[in-house]
Structures are given as structure tokens and as C-alpha cells.
């Protein structure tokens, strides 16, 4: 495990994905206290390399297509079989279950890929400010590394404990190099010495709360930085802004019916899968861009 520059708290020692989900496990306690936990071993290095190869092969097929906002690859689990395998990986779900319980929906997913020597970045923000979901504790985001993720190539940064208290105000910038849909920036001063650098090896993941302030710098290194952000929710959560919302049940039951259930892709980029993908993107953008004056997508 690499040291975290300027980190007032060291991340937990290598956390192994567990096969049971006792109530309020040490991992869950750490998550609820700090708003995050990492690094967690999910995939072997060989598995990570395999899934990276799958992604890079399919990236060539979607070149020039709109599969997300601002050039992102959103909801890959709906159109790619390998991504559908990843979001229901048992080791990943075992950790999610410890945080939000045994009934789990996948609500969102995005491949955040930073090419070498580029200026793309993510400004300080809170995810829940833009998602339209009514329960801030009924969700968790996993960020799974498929490449080495370091300070040099733009790893995420967290502000410990910033998920507590009220949501902060954000400003829309629509900056071209900002990965975020609206270029949203939290209107607060961040002391860099109080932040945590989230370095990960291929196959490791971090987990963070939707109200946690987080950001990432550009990749000025020689290597590609590849991460799969997966947003999990409990079925009792409701969408309060968009007229309709979607999810994929990956564990347990959905006894609420708040989300339209999306089928697994039977083949990559099938007509049916692309139709579902378009419905989801358009619907969730209702929430994401709600109130934006200049919605450049």
C-alpha cells in the first residue's frame, strides 16, 4: 500500500472482501465515520487485466458514438456483458451489503478514464447534490481500478467526514476539461492538507458516500488511468426529480418498485440494450441537469 500524501488518517490495512455481512461490521463502521473505506481487494490482477482488455476492445467499437455525457461511457453495465459481470461480482456486493443492506440495486455506472498527459480533472463536489435521490444513506459508490491509480495519474481525493451535516452549495462551470456533467464545483474552501489521496492497485476498489466531498487531478503521467464507478442503492430509495428512473437488481429483493428493472445485456451493443441505455441516460439527465441554465451534454 502506497503512502497517502497529506493524509491525516491512514486508510485501513488491505481489506479483504468478506463472504458474510454482519450488522455494523468494522468496515461499515469505518465507512460511516469517515465517509469512505479503501483499499478493498475485489479482483485479482489477472482478472483486472482481463476486464481492462474487454473494455479496451469494446472502446474501439463505440468510437464516435454518444454513450454518455461529455464523452463519458455511462451505464456500461446495460450495453456490455463484461460490465454487467463486474457490477454483480460477489466480492463487490459483499462489501456493499455491509454498508446498505442485503437488497441491492445498481443505479448508475461510469468508466472514468484519463488518458496520459491530459488535463481532464474532477472538481470538488458531492454526488448526491445532483442525483435526485431521497435517502443519502441508502446508497454507496464503488470505484474499481482496472489500472494502477496513483497521485501521478490523477487518483481521487477525499475530505474525511465531509459526508456529515448539510449539503454544501455548488456552482456550475461547464468547464471543458471537467469530467463532471455540469462542471459542478462545491462552493467551499478545501485545505489540501486535510485530504486523502486514494491510490489503488488494479483490482482494488474504494467505497464512498454520496455526500462525501471528492475530486481528482489531471493525469500528467505516461500511463492510462482507468476506473469503473458503480453506484449502488437500496430499493427503498426514491427518485424525487426525474419522472422515471431505472435500476438493476443484483442481490436480494425489491419490495418497493420505485425503479424500472433493466434486463442484463444478452450481447454487447445489441439494439435492445442500446435502447435501454438511451432511456436511462435521458431519464437520469432530468435529475442531473435539473436547474442548469446551460446543459451542454
Quick recap:
The protein is of the alpha+beta class and 297 residues long. It has six helices and 15 strands.
Shape: globular
**How many β strands by DSSP?**
15
Structurally, the number of domains stands at 1
Per CATH, the class reads Mainly Beta
Query: What would CATH call the homologous superfamily?
Result: q2cbj1_9rhob like domain
Integer average pLDDT: 88
- Supply the number of helical segments: 6
Order of helices and strands: EHEHEHHHEEEEEEEEEEEEH
> β content, as a range?
15-25%
Which features would summarize this protein structure in a list?
6 helices, alpha+beta, 9-stranded mixed beta sheet, disordered N terminus, 297 residues, globular, Jelly Rolls, 4-stranded antiparallel beta sheet
Blueprint of the fold:
Layout: E1 15-16, H1 26-34, E2 36-41, H2 45-62, E3 73-74, H3 76-79, H4 81-87, H5 90-100, E4 104-114, E5 122-125, E6 139-145, E7 156-158, E8 170-171, E9 185-186, E10 196-198, E11 204-208, E12 214-216, E13 225-233, E14 246-251, E15 260-261, H6 271-288
Parallel strand pairs: 1-2, 14-15
Antiparallel strand pairs: 2-11, 3-4, 4-13, 4-14, 5-12, 6-11, 6-13, 7-10, 7-12, 8-9
What does this structure look like?
The protein is an alpha+beta fold. The chain has a single domain, classed as Sandwich (Jelly Rolls), CATH 2.60.120.620. It contains six helices and 15 strands. Strands 1, 2, 3, 4, 6, 11, 13, 14 and 15 form a nine-stranded mixed sheet that branches.
Amino acid at each position: 500500500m502506497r503512502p497517502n500524501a497529506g493524509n491525516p488518517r491512514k486508510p485501513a490495512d488491505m481489506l479483504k472482501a468478506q463472504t458474510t455481512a454482519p450488522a455494523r461490521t468494522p468496515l461499515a463502521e469505518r465507512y460511516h465515520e469517515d465517509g469512505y473505506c479503501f483499499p478493498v481487494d475485489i479482483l485479482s490482477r489477472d482478472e483486472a487485466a482481463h476486464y481492462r482488455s474487454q473494455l479496451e476492445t469494446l472502446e474501439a467499437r463505440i468510437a464516435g458514438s454518444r454513450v454518455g455525457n461529455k464523452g463519458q461511457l455511462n451505464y456500461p453495465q446495460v450495453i456490455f456483458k463484461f460490465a454487467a459481470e463486474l457490477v454483480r461480482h460477489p466480492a463487490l456486493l459483499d462489501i456493499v451489503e455491509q454498508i446498505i443492506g442485503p437488497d441491492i440495486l445498481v443505479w448508475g455506472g461510469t468508466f472514468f478514464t484519463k488518458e496520459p498527459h491530459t488535463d481532464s480533472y474532477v472538481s470538488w463536489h458531492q454526488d448526491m447534490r445532483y442525483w435526485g435521490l431521497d435517502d443519502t444513506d441508502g446508497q454507496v459508490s464503488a470505484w474499481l481500478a482496472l489500472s494502477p491509480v496513483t497521485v501521478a495519474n490523477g487518483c481521487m481525493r477525499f475530505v474525511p467526514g465531509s459526508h456529515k451535516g448539510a449539503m454544501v452549495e455548488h456552482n456550475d462551470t461547464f468547464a471543458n476539461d471537467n469530467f463532471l456533467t455540469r462542471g459542478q464545483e462545491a462552493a467551499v474552501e478545501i485545505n489540501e492538507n486535510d485530504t486523502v489521496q486514494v491510490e489503488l492497485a488494479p483490482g482494488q476498489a474504494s467505497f464512498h458516500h454520496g455526500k462525501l466531498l471528492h475530486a481528482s487531478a489531471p493525469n500528467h503521467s505516461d500511463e492510462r488511468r482507468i476506473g469503473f464507478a458503480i453506484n449502488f442503492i437500496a430499493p427503498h430509495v426514491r427518485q424525487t426529480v426525474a419522472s422515471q428512473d431505472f435500476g438493476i437488481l443484483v442481490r436480494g429483493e425489491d419490495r418497493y418498485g420505485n425503479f424500472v428493472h433493466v434486463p442484463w445485456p444478452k450481447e454487447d451493443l445489441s439494439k435492445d440494450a442500446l435502447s435501454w441505455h438511451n432511456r436511462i441516460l435521458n431519464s437520469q439527465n432530468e435529475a442531473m441537469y435539473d436547474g442548469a441554465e446551460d446543459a451542454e451534454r
